[in-house]
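User: Teach me something about this protein's shape.
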Amino acid sequence: MFLHVAPPNPLSRQYSRQVNAWVFPLFEQNWRLFAPDPESVNRQISARTMHTAPDGTVRVSPWFDLSGVDNSAVRHDVFPSHTAQNTLRRAWSSYLETHGGDDRPRSERALMMQKYLTDIAADRITDHRGGTFESVQLRVITIPIVAPAEGPGPGPGSSSSAAAPKPVETRYLPWWKVTSHGN
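Assistant: First, the predicted structure itself:
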């Protein structure tokens, strides 16, 4: 952490890749803690796995709701941790920032965020389902949050003059190879 927060120097420049691998995404610093950007959408992030048997047959698992596991953990904990609430959500936000809409990494940070998101999915699937798999695919369903109507009846601010809700979007990420996660 010292090399990350210290003024630029030859040592921090020489080891910047290793330092960033530890600092990002786990200790990323930004202003969202003090000025949060409230979510305008709900995202359901699901994952499925693929396993090739020794005889060559390919088995694809059903979708596993990763965000549902997070939501359940938060709902049933009086004092949920910040990590339980935000790890998957922040990993997805960072993935979007580094990859855009075409799922092609264009930087070392983008590759790191892709691996981080893959590792989260693989670890959670292994923890909840077990089994053997070599690849993971993610599906993200984005559901816009509709703003509540401001006033009853027709007129400005009423639900009859509200903009049409945005459509639900479903995004399928490519299959990614995973390293051994207890498989």
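Now, about its shape. The chain has six helices and six strands. The CA atoms of residues 102 and 111 lie 14 Å apart. If you'd like, I can walk through any region in more detail.
User: That's plenty for now, thanks!
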